Amino acid sequence: MSCVDGPTYQCSGPTIIRSENGVALTSSSVQAYGKSTNDLATPIADPTTAKGLALASGGVAELRVAKGTTTGAVSDAALLLSNLGISWDGVKERPPIIETFRTTSGRVQKDANGLLTFSALPDSSDLTYYDFARKQGAATQLNYANNRYFPRADPSRCPAGDPNFVPCPTTETAGLMTTGAQWIASDWRSGGIVPDMTRAIRVHGDGDIHAGDGIPDSSGARTNLPGGTGKGVPFPGTKGNRELVNWGLQYGNLGAWLTKDTARIADWGATDERNQNRRGVIAYGAVSDSALVPATGTASYSGFVYGWYAPNATAEATIFRGEAVMTVNFTTRQVVVTVSNTVGYDPIKETYSVPVSVPLKATTAMGAAGTNVANYLTGPVDDGRFKGGLSGRYFGPVVTTGKTGAGPAELGGAFSLSNAAGEAVVAGFIGRKQ
Question: pTM for this one?
Answer without folding.
Answer: 0.95
